[in-house]
Amino acid sequence: MGAPIVNELTLADFELENHVRGALKAAVQGDNDFYNQLLGVIHQKEYLSAEEVALLVTCLRAITGAVSSIDIVHHHALLAAVLRMSLWDYEVDVMDVLVEFIVSLASSSGDFVDLCLEMLVSNFMPLSTYYSEEYLKNPQGLYKKRQVLDRVHSTFQSIATVVPFSPVRLGIIVKDKMPSILQKEHLMSMYVENILMLESGVMGDIVGRTVLMALVDRLIELDVELTWDDILQDDFCKGIFDMDLEDLEGHIEFHNADSSELTREALFQNIFCGNNIVIAEKLDSLLVLTFEHLQSCYNSGRLSQVFETLILSFKKTILTAYKSKFAQFIMFYACSLDPENCGEFFANEVLNIFLRNENPEWRMSAVAYLSSYLSRAKFLSASFVATILESVVDWCFQYCKVHEGAIYPKNRSVFYAGCQAIMYVLCFRMKQMLVIPRFNSGRLLKRIEDILGHPLKPMQACLPSIVEEFVELTQKNGLFPSLETFQSRTDLENCRTFGGVQRLDMFFPFDPCLLRKSDRYIHPNYVYWSMVRNSYEDDEHEVIEEEVEVYDGFDEFACSLDKMSITPRPDNMLKMPSRIRPSTSPESL
Is 526 helix (H, G, I), strand (E, B) or coil? Predict the structure, then answer.
């Protein structure tokens, strides 16, 4: 008897599975008649009638029953046709029989596992242009999204039940299939949502680390794509982070027509223009998804476990990244959720890199992270900051004991980075430190004085804006009298020019987050320079509390940026840098 005609078979024909099995075997022998008919049914994708949908379901169910007869070489066309089907293109009747086939195929042979997992991962986001960003936000689109993704993730679990090694392979596939940074924002966000679902799901213990580290890698890749050249139209010798905010205002009008106040939107539009704004918005959206996931992990008691992965990713990707600007705030936010565990653990880990790592650039980057973190993290207690800072002081003091000679930043870069970190933290925390007994002891203050007055001249190698502010604060607090010889305007000018291109520059990774949506997660636990500066401008004899009052709203944000200029003003008001050039090591070195 010849091969049956597929579209003439009745839905009640229980012999269809046997026909399909026979067709698969016949195709191996070169008889492709019924096999090609099956391919024709599978290839129909658009505008299917009810009868065509029913036929498709019947054929898929029959192929599922005959899955043991499928050969990866001889039936490549059939496998490709089925595995290219998108769940997004069908209703639930086709979806259900399709995922049933995927589970059966994966369990039939290890040769098919990767193909099945890749098919499911391809459904993390729709390929059809029908599913626009607007459609996916409306109730119908959200319902469709839930229909698809629920089946995708439940199928991962079903495959893992019969193929125990599949989660390991899944993690690798998810990492390899990560969308490029050129992908549309809403599709990239959907992919990341699926990554985070995997991390928090039943397979999270196996797949979670791989996919979370892949996410951080993509955040860094987006971050380093942000450029600032469009802003520097009038002065190519400056980086955006070396500028006064007043200089920036000179290029593009920041103010509303009806207001003289700086607005967040105007600031964002000025900094992120051209291609920058597309990249910044993608990065911003992915950071928000990550922040929300970390909050969920904290609520479920999983943050410590997830934070171990973040620490690994920090050491592998973030610490060594060049020109990272905002991705590192995932560490800051995670620490703010659990200061006593994650917050203190992070500080100690970064301190350990500075003290013991053999790579000088990593050590410089680590101490930059440490100083910025200790200065900006409102959730860290003053006593803890004093303890960590004391370790940096002790290292620098021991370095001074065994090294002599003139200033030479290239060979002493780690030492100068440590000295700069000490001064930077004290600019933010000096009042708090002076009420901590262990810090206010004669021993520690004397060591700082000896370090900064050493013949290696660290105050002439460090960033001038930090030295200036530090000098001003020491004068106000009556500290380090032996450094008074450095405290003239002439010496400060020497500091600004000493060493030429070898002068130490550093970046401070946790300077203000300028991303629209992400900042609202950061600023409640963030110390802005204006908070600190205002406290010093109050009555010098006023007793202040250890905890700094929370400042909300953009007025505070704008004010803080305005007061964080690194360029000396004509009125000689000394200010801190708003941001330093974002590199992991001094560009001049």
Answer: strand
The residue written with tokens 């803890």 in the block is 384
Using only C-alpha atoms, the chain has a radius of gyration, in whole angstroms, of 30
Q: Return d(Cα 460, Cα 503) in angstroms, integer.
A: 8
Hey, what are 291's tokens?
Answer: 């922040």
Question: What is the C-alpha to C-alpha distance for residues 344 and 425, in angstroms, rounded to an integer?
Answer: 16
Q: Are 304 and 346 contacting, i.e. CB atoms less than 8 angstroms apart?
A: no
**Is residue 586 within 8 Å of residue 511, measured between CB atoms?**
no
Q: Are 581 and 242 in contact (CB under 8 A)?
A: yes
Structure tokens at 42: 């599978």
| Secondary structure, 3-state, 83-112 | HCCCHHHCCHHHHHHHHHHHHHHHHHCHHH
The DSSP line for 417-480 is HHHHHHHHHHHHHHHHHTTSTTTSSHHHHHHHHHHHTSTT-HHHHS-HHHHHHHHHHHHHHT--
Q: What's the CA gap between 332 and 168, in Å, rounded?
A: 29
DSSP per-residue codes, 551-585: --SHHHHHHHHHT---SPPTT------S-----SS
Q: How many residues does the chain have?
A: 589
SS3 484: helix
Torsion of CA 203, 209, 212, 213, to 10 degrees: -150
Q: Band of the pLDDT at 137, cuts 50, 70, 90?
A: very high
* Dist CA 104 CA 300 (whole Å): 34
For 183, the 3-state DSSP assignment is coil
Which neighbouring-strand residues pair with 304?
A: none
pLDDT digits (tens, 9 = 90+) for 428-456: 999 899 888 878 778 889 999 999 988 88
pTM: 0.82
pLDDT digits (tens, 9 = 90+) for 289-309: 999 999 999 999 999 999 999
Tokens of 486: 């450095």
Tell me: the pLDDT tens digits for 481-507? 777 655 444 454 554 444 333 444 557
544's tokens = 């202040």
**Nearest 10 degrees: CA dihedral of 519, 295, 369, 492?**
30
Q: At what angle do helices 92-108 and 113-121 cross, to 10 degrees?
A: 150
The one-letter amino acid code at 576 reads M
In 30-132, which ranges are continuous DSSP H helix? Answer: 33-43, 50-65, 76-83, 92-108, 113-121
Spatial distance between the Cα atoms of 255 and 277, rounded to a whole number of angstroms: 19
Residue found by looking up tokens 């905010």 in the block:
245
The residue among 246, 262, 243 whose CA lies nearest residue 254 is 262
Backbone angles phi, psi at 437, to 5 degrees: -55, -45
One-character DSSP codes across 243-286:
S-HHHHHHHS--B-TT--SB-HHHHHHHHS-THHHHHHHHHHHH
Nearest one of 535, 511, 532, 534 to 523, comparing CA atoms: 511
